[in-house]
């Protein structure tokens, strides 16, 4: 494409659009219609210039012009409590639902890895000896030892806050670092499963696996599910870098990235509930079966929330809720030249 000829052919339209924008709200009905038409054509021009003959100065000029026109055409919108309610009842559960093909396999494989590590440690005394001195291991696994008193060694409120902060940071790291081809996510996930596997192996070797499961299941089901969702979403974001699909890599990453930010907020709320259970239920004097039932109930409630509300929102209107921003809040989607 001859850029000079293209600019000469469309300069008058761009100047007219700029003229209408400078007049602000003082437009007649016909002029408002003209502004919308010029905005749409200029957006197409910008797309063609970007894809066929990228020129930094012209691209910057047209990008600014399109952004001003879009702000005038769509107006500004303030977030309301209705937006927050819609996010909690549709956006977040739909994003989790739509990424289930990533986080469910992640959960299954990670759980198997933790069990395998636990079996390996529990059945090989030489591995246990490499982890720590026998006296230290006995101190960790004995009745009233470190594994058992960990959940009651601090005041419940401060412990719950600390647990929530740590888990929320881990989930956020999985979401943010996913763009690096998902490699950091795999490492974070491995470290988490290694810690769980070591605890399973040592408590199993001490004949106290039932005690450990009674301590970890009340909060661990929901907590680990949130971690798996974050890891699966991060891996999905990393795969988008490799295979963006039918859209451009930039557009695909923008959509997945916006959904990941929403997921971080939603998962922070889920981990807050998990932290409350870990701070107040796990170390409580309730019978083990009662604490486990509370954990299972919290897990089932989350899964029902995702599959009922999220599935319904995802199937709505034919296209489905993706957990992304509403159309008016996104950057203008420009057509791609063939």
Radius of gyration (CA) equals 27 Å
Number of helices: 13
The first-to-last residue Cα distance is 13 Å
Contiguous uncertain segments of 5+ residues: 317-338
Structural account:
By secondary structure, the chain is mostly helical. The chain has 13 helices and no strands. Helix 11 (209-242) runs antiparallel to helix 12 (249-281).
List the helices and strands and how they pair.
Elements (H helix, E strand, L loop, with lengths): L2 H20 L6 H24 L3 H19 L6 H18 L1 H23 L2 H7 L2 H8 L4 H4 L6 H22 L5 H23 L3 H34 L6 H33 L6 H28 L23
Helix pairs in contact: 1-2, 1-3, 2-3, 4-12, 4-13, 5-10, 5-11, 9-10, 9-11, 9-12, 10-11, 11-12, 11-13, 12-13
Tags for this entry?
mainly alpha, 13 helices, 338 residues, elongated
Gist of the model:
Helix content is 78%, strand content 0%.
């Amino acid at each position: 494409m001859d850029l000079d000829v293209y600019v000469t052919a469309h300069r008058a339209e761009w100047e007219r659009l700029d003229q209408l924008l400078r007049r602000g709200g003082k437009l007649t009905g016909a002029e408002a219609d003209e502004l919308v038409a010029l905005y749409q054509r200029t957006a197409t021009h910008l797309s063609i210039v970007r894809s066929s003959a990228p020129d930094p100065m012209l691209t910057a000029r047209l990008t600014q012009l399109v952004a001003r026109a879009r702000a005038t055409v769509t107006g500004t919108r303030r977030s309301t409590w209705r937006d927050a309610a819609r996010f909690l009842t549709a956006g977040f559960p739909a994003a989790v639902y739509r990424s289930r093909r990533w986080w469910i396999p992640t959960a299954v494989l990670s759980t198997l890895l933790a069990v395998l590590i636990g079996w390996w440690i529990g059945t090989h005394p030489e591995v246990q000896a490499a982890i720590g001195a026998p006296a230290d291991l006995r101190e960790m696994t004995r009745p009233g030892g470190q594994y058992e008193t960990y959940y009651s060694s601090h005041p419940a409120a401060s412990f719950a806050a600390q647990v929530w902060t740590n888990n929320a940071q881990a989930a956020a790291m999985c979401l943010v670092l996913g763009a690096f081809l998902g490699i950091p996510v795999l490492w974070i996930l491995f470290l988490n499963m290694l810690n769980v596997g070591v605890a399973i192996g040592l408590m199993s070797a001490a004949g106290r696996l039932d005690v450990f499961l009674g301590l970890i299941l009340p909060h661990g089901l929901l907590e680990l599910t949130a971690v798996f969702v974050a890891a699966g979403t991060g891996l999905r974001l990393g795969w988008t870098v490799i295979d963006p699909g039918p859209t451009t890599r930039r557009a695909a990453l923008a959509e997945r990235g916006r959904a990941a930010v929403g997921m971080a907020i939603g998962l922070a709320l889920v981990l807050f509930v998990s932290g409350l259970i870990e701070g107040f239920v796990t170390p409580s004097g309730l019978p083990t079966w009662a604490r486990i039932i509370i954990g299972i109930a919290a897990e089932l409630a989350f899964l029902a929330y995702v599959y009922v509300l999220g599935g319904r929102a995802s199937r709505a209107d034919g296209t489905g809720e993706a957990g992304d921003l509403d159309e008016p809040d996104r950057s203008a989607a420009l057509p791609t030249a063939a």
